[in-house]
Amino acid sequence: MRGPRRGRNPMNIHEYQAKALLKEFGVPVSRGLAAFTPQDAEAAAAKLGGIAFVVKAQIHAGGRGKGKFKELPAEAKGGVRVVKTAADVKANAAEMLGNTLVTIQTGPDGKQVNRLYIEEGASIDKEFYLSMLVDRATARVAFVVSTEGGMDIEEVAHATPERIVTFSVDPATGVQPLHGRKVAQALGLSGDLAKQAVALTANLYRAFTDKDMSLLEINPLVLTRDDRLVCLDAKVGFDSNALFRHPEVVQLRDESEEDFKEIEASRYDLSYIALDGTIGCMVNGAGLAMATMDIIKLYGREPANFLDVGGGATKEKVTAAFKIITADPNVEGILVNIFGGIMRCDVIAEGVIAAVRQMGLNVPLVVRLAGTNVEEGKKIIRESGLNVIPADDLDDAAQKIVAAVKKEAA
Ligand code: ADP
Ligand code: MG
């Protein structure tokens, strides 16, 4: 049986995948084709035809248009390029593929571009913003709509909050024409365009709920010069807890975009969330994990992660969990805090030792074990000859790891 996957990050997909998926729900998107080589890109343009093409870098990050390639001169164009001919498409594809695009969302390291999307050029009259997310406060799907599209929505929220309209949909009634009319009103659309907005709202809602999305962002949603509403960009994240219902979505996963730690966590069904601190934590049970994070803070340090190995973890699972923690360069010390109920302390101990033997251990490690087979567990650790600091209870463990990290730094 697979346990709950609370607290896992959403699974993201590329723009071209998101658009193909939205199209299935009747959402208007531009025609386009994915490309992995300059030859692919040229062939895609030839197939699409027309007088303008857009070559779009496919990475799991926004801000591509204003992004910069690390390897190219500063004046080179960014990750979204409008060009006129299939030959231009090929030349631009050759310049982009394999290079590293840095945007406001990638961080300074940027992301390598391995895929492109070749899209027909749209003639844009206006750019709007529309997103959907699960609003935890109301436990409903919320829409966020603004006339200020194509820019960073956080900036809009800061500078001109009155230009952002939000509302949520009651799951009991589902999406209604009134929701679509709210969107139309927020965007200043009437007549046939308002009708398009109503259909778009309903179709987006259906896509969102049918596919268990946790985030859908269309920025920009454009009004074309020939009066059509078209989704020109699409960012989609799926609720990891619901992926078991969507093998077709899991297939879209691009592991080259994901963090090693997150791939491993998903492979071993661990609840893992990276945080900003320096103390790596391996804990079983969400409640104990929260308590462990709190007590680390109490003693003046911050947790580097939330990691719950769950109730019935195997040695392999514990080993994977430990590797994930040690792979984080910010980790200055590790605290293993396990209460063995169903989980046996000797299994934990064996997993930890196996991981340390494989990965080495460059930071202090405090282990606190309690519950089933605790004596066997402690004995395994003692006899391993590894430099592990044993602790008796949670308080003791937290103090010891904070002290050990301080000592290391001194
Ligand atoms: P990002 O948000 O990562 O920069 P977008 O897909 O939003 O990428 O593209 C950035 C901008 O490029 C858009 O705001 C739009 O002005 C323009 N653009 C994107 N796709 C097209 C297209 N198919 N036709 C014309 N312009 C486009
Ligand atoms: Mg965009």
TrEMBL record:
<dbReference type="InterPro" id="IPR011761">
    <property type="entry name" value="ATP-grasp"/>
</dbReference>
<comment type="function">
    <text>Succinyl-CoA synthetase functions in the citric acid cycle (TCA), coupling the hydrolysis of succinyl-CoA to the synthesis of either ATP or GTP and thus represents the only step of substrate-level phosphorylation in the TCA. The beta subunit provides nucleotide specificity of the enzyme and binds the substrate succinate, while the binding sites for coenzyme A and phosphate are found in the alpha subunit.</text>
</comment>
<dbReference type="GO" id="GO:0005524">
    <property type="term" value="F:ATP binding"/>
</dbReference>
<feature type="binding site">
    <location>
        <begin position="63"/>
        <end position="65"/>
    </location>
    <ligand>
        <name>ATP</name>
    </ligand>
</feature>
<keyword id="KW-0479">Metal-binding</keyword>
<dbReference type="Pfam" id="PF08442">
    <property type="entry name" value="ATP-grasp_2"/>
</dbReference>
<feature type="domain" description="ATP-grasp">
    <location>
        <begin position="19"/>
        <end position="249"/>
    </location>
</feature>
<keyword id="KW-0816">Tricarboxylic acid cycle</keyword>
<comment type="pathway">
    <text>One-carbon metabolism; formaldehyde assimilation via serine pathway.</text>
</comment>
<dbReference type="GO" id="GO:0050074">
    <property type="term" value="F:malate-CoA ligase activity"/>
</dbReference>
<dbReference type="InterPro" id="IPR005811">
    <property type="entry name" value="SUCC_ACL_C"/>
</dbReference>
<dbReference type="Pfam" id="PF00549">
    <property type="entry name" value="Ligase_CoA"/>
</dbReference>
<feature type="binding site">
    <location>
        <position position="284"/>
    </location>
    <ligand>
        <name>substrate</name>
    </ligand>
</feature>
<feature type="binding site">
    <location>
        <position position="119"/>
    </location>
    <ligand>
        <name>ATP</name>
    </ligand>
</feature>
<keyword id="KW-0436">Ligase</keyword>
<dbReference type="GO" id="GO:0042709">
    <property type="term" value="C:succinate-CoA ligase complex"/>
</dbReference>
<feature type="binding site">
    <location>
        <position position="122"/>
    </location>
    <ligand>
        <name>ATP</name>
    </ligand>
</feature>
<dbReference type="InterPro" id="IPR013815">
    <property type="entry name" value="ATP_grasp_subdomain_1"/>
</dbReference>
<feature type="binding site">
    <location>
        <position position="56"/>
    </location>
    <ligand>
        <name>ATP</name>
    </ligand>
</feature>
<feature type="binding site">
    <location>
        <begin position="341"/>
        <end position="343"/>
    </location>
    <ligand>
        <name>substrate</name>
    </ligand>
</feature>
<dbReference type="GO" id="GO:0000287">
    <property type="term" value="F:magnesium ion binding"/>
</dbReference>
<dbReference type="GO" id="GO:0005829">
    <property type="term" value="C:cytosol"/>
</dbReference>
<feature type="binding site">
    <location>
        <position position="127"/>
    </location>
    <ligand>
        <name>ATP</name>
    </ligand>
</feature>
<feature type="binding site">
    <location>
        <position position="233"/>
    </location>
    <ligand>
        <name>Mg(2+)</name>
    </ligand>
</feature>
<comment type="subunit">
    <text>Heterotetramer of two alpha and two beta subunits.</text>
</comment>
<dbReference type="GO" id="GO:0006104">
    <property type="term" value="P:succinyl-CoA metabolic process"/>
</dbReference>
<dbReference type="InterPro" id="IPR013650">
    <property type="entry name" value="ATP-grasp_succ-CoA_synth-type"/>
</dbReference>
<keyword id="KW-0547">Nucleotide-binding</keyword>
<feature type="binding site">
    <location>
        <position position="219"/>
    </location>
    <ligand>
        <name>Mg(2+)</name>
    </ligand>
</feature>
<dbReference type="InterPro" id="IPR017866">
    <property type="entry name" value="Succ-CoA_synthase_bsu_CS"/>
</dbReference>
<dbReference type="GO" id="GO:0006099">
    <property type="term" value="P:tricarboxylic acid cycle"/>
</dbReference>
<dbReference type="InterPro" id="IPR005809">
    <property type="entry name" value="Succ_CoA_ligase-like_bsu"/>
</dbReference>
<dbReference type="GO" id="GO:0004776">
    <property type="term" value="F:succinate-CoA ligase (GDP-forming) activity"/>
</dbReference>
<dbReference type="GO" id="GO:0004775">
    <property type="term" value="F:succinate-CoA ligase (ADP-forming) activity"/>
</dbReference>
<dbReference type="InterPro" id="IPR016102">
    <property type="entry name" value="Succinyl-CoA_synth-like"/>
</dbReference>
<comment type="pathway">
    <text>Carbohydrate metabolism; tricarboxylic acid cycle; succinate from succinyl-CoA (ligase route): step 1/1.</text>
</comment>
<keyword id="KW-0460">Magnesium</keyword>
<protein>
    <recommendedName>
        <fullName>Succinate--CoA ligase [ADP-forming] subunit beta</fullName>
        <ecNumber>6.2.1.5</ecNumber>
    </recommendedName>
</protein>
<keyword id="KW-0067">ATP-binding</keyword>
<comment type="similarity">
    <text>Belongs to the succinate/malate CoA ligase beta subunit family.</text>
</comment>
